[in-house]
Design goal:
- The structure holds two protein chains of two kinds.
- Chain A has helices spanning 10-15, 35-50, 53-74, 87-118, 122-125, 131-158, 168-192, 196-212, 225-231, 235-248, 255-279; strands spanning 81-82, 85-86.
- By secondary structure, chain A is mainly alpha-helical.
- Chain A has one domain (47-279).
- Chain A has a two-stranded antiparallel sheet.
- In chain A, helix 3 (53-74) packs across helix 6, helix 4 (87-118) packs parallel to helix 7 and helix 6 (131-158) packs across helix 7 (168-192).
- Chain A is elongated and about 85 Å long.
- By secondary structure, chain B is mostly helical.
- Chain B has one domain (15-53, 67-258).
- Chain B is elongated and about 75 Å long.
- Chain B starts with 13 loop residues before the first helix and ends in a 6-residue tail after the last helix.
- The chains are: A mainly alpha, B mainly alpha.
- The A-B interface holds A 52, 54-55, 58-59, 62-63, 66-67, 69-71, 73-76, 80, 197, 200-201, 204-205, 208-209, 212-213, 217-218, 222-223 and B 31, 33-34, 37-38, 41-42, 45, 48-50, 52-55, 57-59, 66, 175-176, 179-180, 183-184, 187-188, 191-192, 195-197, 201-202.
Chain lengths: 285, 264
Protein backbone atom coordinates (compact mmCIF):
# COMPACT_ATOMS: atom_id res chain seq x y z
CA UNK A 1 0.00 0.00 0.00
CA UNK A 2 1.57 3.29 -1.08
CA UNK A 3 0.89 6.12 1.28
CA UNK A 4 1.16 9.53 -0.20
CA UNK A 5 2.97 12.04 1.95
CA UNK A 6 1.90 15.64 2.04
CA UNK A 7 4.20 18.05 0.29
CA UNK A 8 3.68 21.59 1.44
CA UNK A 9 4.40 24.06 -1.29
CA UNK A 10 7.72 25.76 -0.77
CA UNK A 11 6.13 29.18 -0.98
CA UNK A 12 4.49 28.72 2.43
CA UNK A 13 7.84 28.17 4.06
CA UNK A 14 9.38 31.05 2.18
CA UNK A 15 6.72 33.56 3.16
CA UNK A 16 7.45 33.12 6.87
CA UNK A 17 10.13 35.71 7.58
CA UNK A 18 12.95 34.44 9.77
CA UNK A 19 13.03 35.93 13.25
CA UNK A 20 9.46 37.10 13.06
CA UNK A 21 6.92 35.30 15.22
CA UNK A 22 4.13 34.01 12.94
CA UNK A 23 0.62 34.41 14.26
CA UNK A 24 -0.69 31.19 15.81
CA UNK A 25 -3.11 29.48 13.43
CA UNK A 26 -6.71 29.90 14.42
CA UNK A 27 -8.67 26.88 15.55
CA UNK A 28 -10.81 25.79 12.64
CA UNK A 29 -14.47 25.92 13.44
CA UNK A 30 -16.36 22.94 12.14
CA UNK A 31 -19.88 23.73 13.26
CA UNK A 32 -22.19 21.26 14.97
CA UNK A 33 -21.68 18.68 12.29
CA UNK A 34 -18.44 18.29 10.39
CA UNK A 35 -20.08 18.11 6.97
CA UNK A 36 -16.83 18.26 5.08
CA UNK A 37 -15.40 15.34 7.08
CA UNK A 38 -18.56 13.32 6.75
CA UNK A 39 -18.65 13.85 3.01
CA UNK A 40 -14.98 13.02 2.64
CA UNK A 41 -15.27 9.72 4.49
CA UNK A 42 -18.41 8.87 2.51
CA UNK A 43 -16.59 9.57 -0.76
CA UNK A 44 -13.69 7.39 0.37
CA UNK A 45 -16.08 4.56 1.18
CA UNK A 46 -17.73 4.82 -2.23
CA UNK A 47 -14.55 5.20 -4.25
CA UNK A 48 -13.10 2.22 -2.44
CA UNK A 49 -15.60 -0.13 -4.08
CA UNK A 50 -16.05 1.74 -7.35
CA UNK A 51 -12.34 1.43 -8.03
CA UNK A 52 -12.65 -2.36 -8.11
CA UNK A 53 -16.13 -2.44 -9.62
CA UNK A 54 -15.55 -5.74 -11.46
CA UNK A 55 -15.20 -7.34 -8.05
CA UNK A 56 -17.82 -5.30 -6.20
CA UNK A 57 -20.52 -4.62 -8.77
CA UNK A 58 -20.04 -6.81 -11.85
CA UNK A 59 -19.19 -10.01 -9.95
CA UNK A 60 -22.34 -10.06 -7.78
CA UNK A 61 -24.46 -9.35 -10.84
CA UNK A 62 -22.97 -12.32 -12.69
CA UNK A 63 -23.35 -14.61 -9.68
CA UNK A 64 -26.98 -13.59 -9.20
CA UNK A 65 -27.73 -14.22 -12.87
CA UNK A 66 -26.21 -17.68 -12.54
CA UNK A 67 -28.38 -18.38 -9.51
CA UNK A 68 -31.40 -17.19 -11.41
CA UNK A 69 -30.54 -19.39 -14.38
CA UNK A 70 -30.00 -22.57 -12.41
CA UNK A 71 -33.09 -22.12 -10.31
CA UNK A 72 -35.37 -21.41 -13.24
CA UNK A 73 -33.84 -24.08 -15.49
CA UNK A 74 -33.59 -26.72 -12.80
CA UNK A 75 -37.03 -26.10 -11.44
CA UNK A 76 -38.81 -26.56 -14.65
CA UNK A 77 -39.67 -23.20 -16.18
CA UNK A 78 -43.11 -21.90 -16.90
CA UNK A 79 -45.14 -24.54 -15.13
CA UNK A 80 -43.98 -23.74 -11.63
CA UNK A 81 -45.90 -21.11 -9.73
CA UNK A 82 -45.81 -19.67 -6.23
CA UNK A 83 -49.37 -18.72 -5.37
CA UNK A 84 -50.48 -17.14 -8.64
CA UNK A 85 -47.06 -15.75 -9.55
CA UNK A 86 -44.69 -17.56 -11.86
CA UNK A 87 -41.57 -18.83 -10.11
CA UNK A 88 -39.21 -16.55 -12.06
CA UNK A 89 -41.19 -13.43 -11.16
CA UNK A 90 -41.33 -14.57 -7.54
CA UNK A 91 -37.60 -15.32 -7.44
CA UNK A 92 -36.20 -12.17 -9.06
CA UNK A 93 -36.97 -9.65 -6.26
CA UNK A 94 -35.64 -12.07 -3.65
CA UNK A 95 -32.35 -12.44 -5.50
CA UNK A 96 -32.04 -8.66 -5.95
CA UNK A 97 -32.61 -8.16 -2.24
CA UNK A 98 -30.16 -10.88 -1.30
CA UNK A 99 -27.39 -9.42 -3.40
CA UNK A 100 -28.05 -5.93 -1.98
CA UNK A 101 -27.81 -7.24 1.56
CA UNK A 102 -24.61 -9.17 0.96
CA UNK A 103 -22.91 -6.22 -0.67
CA UNK A 104 -24.01 -3.62 1.86
CA UNK A 105 -22.59 -5.88 4.58
CA UNK A 106 -19.40 -6.56 2.66
CA UNK A 107 -18.68 -2.87 2.12
CA UNK A 108 -18.65 -1.64 5.71
CA UNK A 109 -17.29 -4.83 7.27
CA UNK A 110 -14.34 -5.24 4.89
CA UNK A 111 -13.50 -1.54 4.96
CA UNK A 112 -13.21 -1.41 8.73
CA UNK A 113 -11.55 -4.78 9.16
CA UNK A 114 -8.93 -4.22 6.44
CA UNK A 115 -8.16 -0.76 7.82
CA UNK A 116 -7.60 -2.35 11.20
CA UNK A 117 -5.33 -5.05 9.81
CA UNK A 118 -3.34 -2.62 7.71
CA UNK A 119 -3.14 -0.14 10.52
CA UNK A 120 -4.62 2.79 8.64
CA UNK A 121 -7.77 2.89 10.74
CA UNK A 122 -6.11 5.87 12.46
CA UNK A 123 -6.83 7.85 9.31
CA UNK A 124 -10.47 7.58 10.30
CA UNK A 125 -10.05 7.88 14.07
CA UNK A 126 -7.68 10.86 14.19
CA UNK A 127 -9.61 13.42 12.13
CA UNK A 128 -12.21 15.55 13.90
CA UNK A 129 -15.07 13.13 13.22
CA UNK A 130 -17.49 12.17 15.95
CA UNK A 131 -18.77 8.62 16.43
CA UNK A 132 -22.10 9.67 14.95
CA UNK A 133 -20.45 11.08 11.85
CA UNK A 134 -18.43 7.89 11.42
CA UNK A 135 -21.53 5.70 11.65
CA UNK A 136 -23.41 7.81 9.12
CA UNK A 137 -20.54 8.01 6.63
CA UNK A 138 -19.71 4.28 6.80
CA UNK A 139 -23.35 3.23 6.65
CA UNK A 140 -24.09 5.58 3.75
CA UNK A 141 -21.19 4.03 1.84
CA UNK A 142 -22.62 0.55 2.41
CA UNK A 143 -26.13 1.65 1.40
CA UNK A 144 -24.73 3.20 -1.78
CA UNK A 145 -23.03 -0.06 -2.74
CA UNK A 146 -26.12 -2.10 -1.89
CA UNK A 147 -28.37 0.10 -4.01
CA UNK A 148 -25.91 0.27 -6.88
CA UNK A 149 -25.58 -3.52 -7.05
CA UNK A 150 -29.34 -3.91 -6.62
CA UNK A 151 -30.20 -1.51 -9.44
CA UNK A 152 -27.66 -3.13 -11.77
CA UNK A 153 -28.87 -6.64 -10.99
CA UNK A 154 -32.48 -5.55 -11.35
CA UNK A 155 -31.80 -3.92 -14.71
CA UNK A 156 -30.16 -7.07 -16.05
CA UNK A 157 -32.84 -9.38 -14.66
CA UNK A 158 -35.53 -7.16 -16.19
CA UNK A 159 -34.21 -8.19 -19.60
CA UNK A 160 -35.20 -11.81 -19.00
CA UNK A 161 -38.08 -11.62 -16.49
CA UNK A 162 -41.30 -9.67 -16.95
CA UNK A 163 -40.83 -7.68 -13.74
CA UNK A 164 -44.00 -5.99 -12.58
CA UNK A 165 -44.25 -2.89 -10.43
CA UNK A 166 -46.79 -2.65 -7.66
CA UNK A 167 -45.53 0.05 -5.33
CA UNK A 168 -42.34 2.00 -5.88
CA UNK A 169 -42.47 3.23 -2.29
CA UNK A 170 -42.41 -0.25 -0.84
CA UNK A 171 -39.48 -1.13 -3.07
CA UNK A 172 -37.52 1.98 -2.16
CA UNK A 173 -38.21 1.71 1.54
CA UNK A 174 -37.16 -1.91 1.78
CA UNK A 175 -34.12 -1.46 -0.43
CA UNK A 176 -32.82 1.41 1.72
CA UNK A 177 -33.86 -0.07 5.07
CA UNK A 178 -32.32 -3.47 4.29
CA UNK A 179 -29.09 -2.00 2.93
CA UNK A 180 -28.84 0.22 6.00
CA UNK A 181 -29.47 -2.68 8.35
CA UNK A 182 -26.77 -4.79 6.75
CA UNK A 183 -24.35 -1.88 6.57
CA UNK A 184 -24.77 -1.36 10.30
CA UNK A 185 -24.28 -5.07 10.96
CA UNK A 186 -21.16 -4.78 8.82
CA UNK A 187 -19.84 -1.97 11.02
CA UNK A 188 -20.29 -4.13 14.11
CA UNK A 189 -18.71 -7.14 12.43
CA UNK A 190 -15.81 -5.09 11.08
CA UNK A 191 -15.05 -3.70 14.51
CA UNK A 192 -15.26 -7.12 16.14
CA UNK A 193 -13.31 -9.21 13.61
CA UNK A 194 -9.54 -9.24 14.00
CA UNK A 195 -8.71 -11.54 11.13
CA UNK A 196 -10.01 -12.57 7.74
CA UNK A 197 -11.30 -15.90 8.97
CA UNK A 198 -13.33 -14.18 11.71
CA UNK A 199 -15.08 -12.22 9.02
CA UNK A 200 -15.58 -15.22 6.82
CA UNK A 201 -17.10 -17.05 9.82
CA UNK A 202 -19.64 -14.25 10.29
CA UNK A 203 -20.43 -14.18 6.59
CA UNK A 204 -20.74 -17.96 6.28
CA UNK A 205 -22.44 -18.80 9.55
CA UNK A 206 -24.61 -15.75 10.21
CA UNK A 207 -25.27 -13.59 7.17
CA UNK A 208 -25.57 -16.37 4.60
CA UNK A 209 -27.91 -18.67 6.54
CA UNK A 210 -30.13 -15.74 7.48
CA UNK A 211 -30.35 -14.58 3.88
CA UNK A 212 -30.62 -18.05 2.32
CA UNK A 213 -33.33 -19.15 4.72
CA UNK A 214 -35.35 -15.97 4.51
CA UNK A 215 -37.78 -16.86 1.79
CA UNK A 216 -35.77 -15.76 -1.22
CA UNK A 217 -36.38 -19.04 -2.95
CA UNK A 218 -39.69 -20.17 -1.53
CA UNK A 219 -42.86 -18.88 0.05
CA UNK A 220 -42.77 -19.54 3.78
CA UNK A 221 -46.29 -20.93 3.46
CA UNK A 222 -44.54 -24.01 2.12
CA UNK A 223 -42.67 -24.52 5.38
CA UNK A 224 -43.89 -26.75 8.19
CA UNK A 225 -45.76 -24.69 10.77
CA UNK A 226 -42.91 -24.60 13.26
CA UNK A 227 -40.49 -23.17 10.71
CA UNK A 228 -43.06 -20.61 9.58
CA UNK A 229 -43.01 -19.21 13.11
CA UNK A 230 -39.21 -19.29 13.16
CA UNK A 231 -39.12 -17.39 9.86
CA UNK A 232 -41.22 -14.62 11.40
CA UNK A 233 -38.34 -13.95 13.82
CA UNK A 234 -35.82 -13.56 11.01
CA UNK A 235 -35.56 -9.84 10.16
CA UNK A 236 -34.17 -10.79 6.76
CA UNK A 237 -37.49 -12.42 5.99
CA UNK A 238 -39.36 -9.11 6.31
CA UNK A 239 -36.92 -7.32 4.03
CA UNK A 240 -37.38 -9.84 1.27
CA UNK A 241 -41.09 -10.26 1.80
CA UNK A 242 -41.80 -6.51 1.82
CA UNK A 243 -39.47 -5.83 -1.09
CA UNK A 244 -41.12 -8.54 -3.14
CA UNK A 245 -44.56 -7.17 -2.24
CA UNK A 246 -43.45 -3.93 -3.92
CA UNK A 247 -43.14 -5.87 -7.16
CA UNK A 248 -45.84 -8.53 -7.11
CA UNK A 249 -48.35 -6.92 -4.78
CA UNK A 250 -48.75 -9.77 -2.33
CA UNK A 251 -46.80 -10.76 0.75
CA UNK A 252 -46.44 -13.78 3.01
CA UNK A 253 -46.90 -11.73 6.14
CA UNK A 254 -48.04 -8.27 7.18
CA UNK A 255 -46.04 -5.57 5.39
CA UNK A 256 -46.82 -3.11 8.20
CA UNK A 257 -45.28 -5.40 10.79
CA UNK A 258 -42.28 -5.75 8.50
CA UNK A 259 -41.85 -1.98 8.25
CA UNK A 260 -41.87 -1.64 12.03
CA UNK A 261 -39.41 -4.53 12.39
CA UNK A 262 -37.10 -2.78 9.89
CA UNK A 263 -37.33 0.56 11.67
CA UNK A 264 -36.83 -1.00 15.09
CA UNK A 265 -33.88 -3.14 14.02
CA UNK A 266 -32.22 -0.20 12.31
CA UNK A 267 -32.61 2.07 15.34
CA UNK A 268 -31.20 -0.63 17.59
CA UNK A 269 -28.22 -1.23 15.34
CA UNK A 270 -27.62 2.51 14.90
CA UNK A 271 -27.44 2.86 18.67
CA UNK A 272 -25.20 -0.19 19.02
CA UNK A 273 -22.71 0.89 16.37
CA UNK A 274 -22.70 4.44 17.75
CA UNK A 275 -21.91 3.13 21.24
CA UNK A 276 -19.21 0.83 19.92
CA UNK A 277 -17.49 3.53 17.89
CA UNK A 278 -17.80 6.05 20.72
CA UNK A 279 -16.25 3.61 23.19
CA UNK A 280 -13.35 2.87 20.86
CA UNK A 281 -13.85 -0.89 21.38
CA UNK A 282 -11.06 -2.76 19.54
CA UNK A 283 -10.21 0.45 17.69
CA UNK A 284 -8.49 2.67 20.22
CA UNK A 285 -5.84 1.39 22.58
CA UNK B 1 37.29 -26.17 9.41
CA UNK B 2 36.06 -28.08 6.42
CA UNK B 3 33.39 -26.47 4.25
CA UNK B 4 30.13 -28.38 4.58
CA UNK B 5 29.62 -30.77 1.73
CA UNK B 6 26.96 -29.83 -0.80
CA UNK B 7 23.82 -31.66 0.05
CA UNK B 8 22.98 -34.41 -2.38
CA UNK B 9 19.48 -34.84 -3.63
CA UNK B 10 18.46 -37.87 -5.57
CA UNK B 11 16.70 -37.68 -8.90
CA UNK B 12 13.71 -36.28 -7.07
CA UNK B 13 13.85 -34.06 -3.99
CA UNK B 14 11.25 -36.01 -2.08
CA UNK B 15 11.79 -34.06 1.09
CA UNK B 16 11.13 -30.81 -0.80
CA UNK B 17 7.96 -32.10 -2.41
CA UNK B 18 6.70 -33.43 0.91
CA UNK B 19 7.49 -30.18 2.72
CA UNK B 20 5.76 -27.98 0.18
CA UNK B 21 2.80 -30.37 0.10
CA UNK B 22 2.49 -30.25 3.87
CA UNK B 23 2.79 -26.49 4.05
CA UNK B 24 0.09 -25.92 1.44
CA UNK B 25 -2.29 -28.44 2.97
CA UNK B 26 -1.72 -27.09 6.46
CA UNK B 27 -2.45 -23.54 5.34
CA UNK B 28 -5.86 -24.55 4.08
CA UNK B 29 -6.79 -26.74 7.02
CA UNK B 30 -5.69 -24.19 9.60
CA UNK B 31 -8.74 -22.18 8.58
CA UNK B 32 -11.02 -25.19 8.79
CA UNK B 33 -14.10 -23.04 9.36
CA UNK B 34 -13.52 -21.61 5.88
CA UNK B 35 -12.33 -24.77 4.15
CA UNK B 36 -14.50 -27.47 5.75
CA UNK B 37 -17.37 -26.16 7.85
CA UNK B 38 -18.52 -23.34 5.56
CA UNK B 39 -18.77 -25.47 2.38
CA UNK B 40 -20.62 -28.17 4.33
CA UNK B 41 -23.15 -25.69 5.70
CA UNK B 42 -23.60 -24.02 2.32
CA UNK B 43 -24.19 -27.33 0.54
CA UNK B 44 -26.67 -28.42 3.23
CA UNK B 45 -28.58 -25.15 2.81
CA UNK B 46 -28.65 -25.50 -0.96
CA UNK B 47 -29.93 -29.05 -0.64
CA UNK B 48 -32.57 -27.95 1.86
CA UNK B 49 -33.73 -25.06 -0.28
CA UNK B 50 -33.95 -27.16 -3.41
CA UNK B 51 -35.76 -29.92 -1.57
CA UNK B 52 -38.23 -27.37 -0.25
CA UNK B 53 -38.81 -25.57 -3.53
CA UNK B 54 -39.10 -28.73 -5.52
CA UNK B 55 -41.27 -30.29 -2.81
CA UNK B 56 -43.13 -32.99 -4.62
CA UNK B 57 -44.26 -31.33 -7.81
CA UNK B 58 -41.30 -31.72 -10.14
CA UNK B 59 -41.33 -34.51 -12.64
CA UNK B 60 -38.61 -37.05 -12.03
CA UNK B 61 -35.47 -36.69 -14.12
CA UNK B 62 -33.27 -39.66 -14.92
CA UNK B 63 -35.38 -42.05 -12.95
CA UNK B 64 -34.06 -40.77 -9.64
CA UNK B 65 -35.58 -38.22 -7.36
CA UNK B 66 -34.40 -34.64 -7.99
CA UNK B 67 -32.70 -34.13 -4.64
CA UNK B 68 -30.87 -37.43 -5.01
CA UNK B 69 -29.83 -36.15 -8.42
CA UNK B 70 -28.59 -32.88 -6.94
CA UNK B 71 -26.55 -34.18 -3.98
CA UNK B 72 -23.55 -35.71 -5.81
CA UNK B 73 -23.36 -32.53 -7.89
CA UNK B 74 -23.08 -30.44 -4.76
CA UNK B 75 -20.23 -32.66 -3.54
CA UNK B 76 -18.44 -32.32 -6.88
CA UNK B 77 -18.90 -28.55 -6.89
CA UNK B 78 -17.50 -28.28 -3.36
CA UNK B 79 -14.43 -30.36 -4.23
CA UNK B 80 -13.68 -28.30 -7.31
CA UNK B 81 -14.30 -24.98 -5.62
CA UNK B 82 -11.99 -25.75 -2.70
CA UNK B 83 -9.31 -27.09 -5.05
CA UNK B 84 -9.43 -23.95 -7.15
CA UNK B 85 -9.29 -21.62 -4.17
CA UNK B 86 -6.41 -23.41 -2.45
CA UNK B 87 -3.55 -22.93 -4.88
CA UNK B 88 -4.62 -19.76 -6.68
CA UNK B 89 -5.28 -17.98 -3.41
CA UNK B 90 -1.98 -18.88 -1.76
CA UNK B 91 0.12 -18.22 -4.85
CA UNK B 92 -1.23 -14.69 -5.06
CA UNK B 93 -0.85 -14.24 -1.32
CA UNK B 94 2.79 -15.32 -1.49
CA UNK B 95 3.45 -13.00 -4.40
CA UNK B 96 1.86 -9.99 -2.72
CA UNK B 97 3.61 -10.68 0.58
CA UNK B 98 6.90 -11.15 -1.24
CA UNK B 99 7.50 -14.61 0.17
CA UNK B 100 7.23 -16.40 -3.16
CA UNK B 101 11.03 -16.51 -3.04
CA UNK B 102 10.64 -19.29 -0.49
CA UNK B 103 9.70 -21.68 -3.24
CA UNK B 104 11.62 -20.04 -6.09
CA UNK B 105 14.92 -20.33 -4.24
CA UNK B 106 14.35 -23.70 -2.58
CA UNK B 107 16.08 -26.63 -4.29
CA UNK B 108 12.90 -27.92 -5.87
CA UNK B 109 12.42 -28.16 -9.61
CA UNK B 110 9.40 -26.81 -11.49
CA UNK B 111 8.08 -30.35 -11.76
CA UNK B 112 8.34 -30.91 -8.03
CA UNK B 113 6.56 -27.62 -7.31
CA UNK B 114 3.73 -28.50 -9.69
CA UNK B 115 3.31 -31.95 -8.15
CA UNK B 116 3.33 -30.64 -4.57
CA UNK B 117 0.79 -27.92 -5.35
CA UNK B 118 -1.40 -30.34 -7.32
CA UNK B 119 -1.51 -32.95 -4.58
CA UNK B 120 -2.06 -30.48 -1.75
CA UNK B 121 -4.90 -28.78 -3.62
CA UNK B 122 -6.48 -32.14 -4.46
CA UNK B 123 -6.16 -33.29 -0.84
CA UNK B 124 -7.73 -30.06 0.35
CA UNK B 125 -10.53 -30.42 -2.19
CA UNK B 126 -11.22 -34.04 -1.29
CA UNK B 127 -11.32 -33.27 2.45
CA UNK B 128 -13.75 -30.46 1.80
CA UNK B 129 -15.78 -32.82 -0.39
CA UNK B 130 -15.83 -35.38 2.43
CA UNK B 131 -17.16 -32.75 4.84
CA UNK B 132 -19.89 -31.84 2.35
CA UNK B 133 -20.67 -35.52 1.79
CA UNK B 134 -21.23 -36.04 5.50
CA UNK B 135 -23.37 -32.91 5.74
CA UNK B 136 -25.58 -34.21 2.93
CA UNK B 137 -26.21 -37.64 4.46
CA UNK B 138 -29.36 -36.36 6.26
CA UNK B 139 -30.72 -35.38 2.84
CA UNK B 140 -30.40 -38.94 1.63
CA UNK B 141 -26.87 -39.23 0.28
CA UNK B 142 -25.85 -42.84 0.84
CA UNK B 143 -22.91 -45.09 0.17
CA UNK B 144 -21.74 -44.63 -3.43
CA UNK B 145 -22.84 -47.17 -5.97
CA UNK B 146 -19.22 -47.59 -6.99
CA UNK B 147 -16.79 -46.07 -4.46
CA UNK B 148 -13.74 -46.62 -6.65
CA UNK B 149 -15.27 -44.81 -9.60
CA UNK B 150 -16.36 -42.01 -7.27
CA UNK B 151 -12.85 -41.64 -5.96
CA UNK B 152 -11.47 -41.68 -9.49
CA UNK B 153 -13.69 -38.84 -10.71
CA UNK B 154 -13.27 -36.82 -7.53
CA UNK B 155 -9.49 -37.13 -7.62
CA UNK B 156 -8.93 -36.69 -11.36
CA UNK B 157 -11.38 -33.79 -11.47
CA UNK B 158 -9.72 -31.98 -8.65
CA UNK B 159 -6.28 -32.60 -10.15
CA UNK B 160 -7.49 -31.04 -13.41
CA UNK B 161 -8.83 -27.96 -11.61
CA UNK B 162 -5.63 -27.82 -9.55
CA UNK B 163 -3.66 -27.18 -12.74
CA UNK B 164 -6.06 -24.42 -13.74
CA UNK B 165 -5.68 -22.97 -10.27
CA UNK B 166 -1.88 -22.92 -10.58
CA UNK B 167 -2.08 -21.13 -13.91
CA UNK B 168 -4.59 -18.60 -12.56
CA UNK B 169 -2.46 -18.02 -9.46
CA UNK B 170 0.67 -17.42 -11.52
CA UNK B 171 -1.15 -15.12 -13.91
CA UNK B 172 -2.87 -13.01 -11.24
CA UNK B 173 -0.98 -10.01 -9.96
CA UNK B 174 -3.63 -8.76 -7.57
CA UNK B 175 -6.61 -10.06 -5.63
CA UNK B 176 -8.90 -8.55 -8.26
CA UNK B 177 -7.37 -10.83 -10.88
CA UNK B 178 -7.82 -13.97 -8.87
CA UNK B 179 -11.36 -13.06 -7.98
CA UNK B 180 -12.09 -12.24 -11.62
CA UNK B 181 -10.77 -15.65 -12.69
CA UNK B 182 -13.02 -17.19 -10.10
CA UNK B 183 -16.21 -15.19 -10.66
CA UNK B 184 -16.11 -14.85 -14.42
CA UNK B 185 -14.52 -18.15 -15.47
CA UNK B 186 -14.54 -20.80 -12.79
CA UNK B 187 -17.93 -20.26 -11.14
CA UNK B 188 -19.92 -20.00 -14.41
CA UNK B 189 -18.24 -23.21 -15.60
CA UNK B 190 -19.26 -24.97 -12.38
CA UNK B 191 -22.79 -23.57 -12.24
CA UNK B 192 -23.45 -24.40 -15.87
CA UNK B 193 -22.05 -27.92 -15.70
CA UNK B 194 -25.18 -29.80 -14.78
CA UNK B 195 -24.67 -29.63 -11.03
CA UNK B 196 -28.18 -28.33 -10.58
CA UNK B 197 -30.13 -29.68 -13.51
CA UNK B 198 -30.16 -32.70 -15.80
CA UNK B 199 -29.08 -32.26 -19.38
CA UNK B 200 -32.51 -32.90 -20.89
CA UNK B 201 -33.93 -29.76 -19.26
CA UNK B 202 -32.08 -27.70 -21.83
CA UNK B 203 -32.70 -27.13 -25.54
CA UNK B 204 -30.29 -29.04 -27.85
CA UNK B 205 -27.96 -26.02 -28.24
CA UNK B 206 -27.67 -25.68 -24.49
CA UNK B 207 -26.98 -29.40 -24.16
CA UNK B 208 -24.11 -29.12 -26.62
CA UNK B 209 -22.71 -26.17 -24.72
CA UNK B 210 -22.75 -28.10 -21.47
CA UNK B 211 -21.15 -31.12 -23.07
CA UNK B 212 -18.32 -28.84 -24.17
CA UNK B 213 -17.76 -27.88 -20.53
CA UNK B 214 -15.09 -30.18 -19.07
CA UNK B 215 -16.50 -29.76 -15.55
CA UNK B 216 -19.69 -31.45 -16.76
CA UNK B 217 -17.75 -34.72 -17.04
CA UNK B 218 -16.49 -34.47 -13.47
CA UNK B 219 -19.95 -33.79 -12.09
CA UNK B 220 -21.62 -36.37 -14.27
CA UNK B 221 -18.97 -39.00 -13.57
CA UNK B 222 -19.28 -38.51 -9.84
CA UNK B 223 -23.04 -38.65 -10.08
CA UNK B 224 -22.86 -41.88 -12.06
CA UNK B 225 -20.53 -43.38 -9.46
CA UNK B 226 -22.77 -42.33 -6.58
CA UNK B 227 -26.27 -42.90 -7.93
CA UNK B 228 -25.62 -45.37 -10.69
CA UNK B 229 -27.04 -43.23 -13.47
CA UNK B 230 -25.48 -40.47 -15.51
CA UNK B 231 -25.85 -38.56 -18.78
CA UNK B 232 -22.50 -39.25 -20.39
CA UNK B 233 -20.33 -42.27 -21.08
CA UNK B 234 -17.81 -42.44 -18.19
CA UNK B 235 -15.04 -43.55 -20.55
CA UNK B 236 -15.49 -40.39 -22.61
CA UNK B 237 -15.64 -38.39 -19.39
CA UNK B 238 -12.42 -39.89 -18.06
CA UNK B 239 -10.70 -39.29 -21.39
CA UNK B 240 -11.74 -35.63 -21.47
CA UNK B 241 -10.60 -35.05 -17.89
CA UNK B 242 -7.26 -36.79 -18.26
CA UNK B 243 -6.47 -35.18 -21.62
CA UNK B 244 -7.33 -31.67 -20.51
CA UNK B 245 -5.56 -32.25 -17.20
CA UNK B 246 -2.38 -33.28 -19.02
CA UNK B 247 -2.50 -30.20 -21.26
CA UNK B 248 -3.06 -27.87 -18.31
CA UNK B 249 -0.22 -29.43 -16.33
CA UNK B 250 2.11 -29.04 -19.29
CA UNK B 251 1.23 -25.34 -19.32
CA UNK B 252 1.61 -24.99 -15.55
CA UNK B 253 4.97 -26.76 -15.70
CA UNK B 254 6.22 -24.46 -18.45
CA UNK B 255 5.10 -21.39 -16.50
CA UNK B 256 6.85 -22.49 -13.31
CA UNK B 257 9.97 -23.49 -15.25
CA UNK B 258 10.23 -20.06 -16.85
CA UNK B 259 9.27 -18.35 -13.58
CA UNK B 260 6.31 -16.56 -15.15
CA UNK B 261 5.46 -13.60 -12.91
CA UNK B 262 7.35 -15.08 -9.98
CA UNK B 263 10.95 -14.45 -11.01
CA UNK B 264 11.33 -10.80 -11.87
Amino acid sequence: MVRRSVHYPLTIMQTIPTGVQAAAPKVRSLGIINWRGLWTLYLKEVQRFVKVFTQTVAAPVVTTLLFFTIFTVALGGAGRVVGDTSFAVFLAPGLIMMVMMQNAFANTSSSIMISKIQGNIVDVLMPPLSAGELVVAFAAGGVTRGLMVGVTTGAVLALVVPITLYSLWLILFHAVAASLLLSLLGILAGIWADRFDHMSAITNFVIMPFSFLSGTFYSIQRLPEFWQVVALFNPFFYMIDGFRAGFIGSADSSVTVGIFVMLGANLLLLAASYRLLASGYKLKA
Amino acid sequence: MKAPAARQFQEVNWLGVWTLFRRELHRGLKMWTVSLAAPALRAAMMAGIFALVVASTLDVPLGIDFVAFLLPGLVAAAILERTFETTAFWLVYDKLEGVIGDIVRAPVTAGEIVVAYALSAAASGLLSGAAVYIALIPFGLGVPDSPLLALFFAFSGSLMIGAFSQIAGLWAKKWDHVSAAQTFVFVPFVFLSGVFFPLDRLPPAGQLLIQANPIFYVVDGLRLAVTGSGDADPVIGATVILTLGTVLYAVAYRLFAMGYRIKD
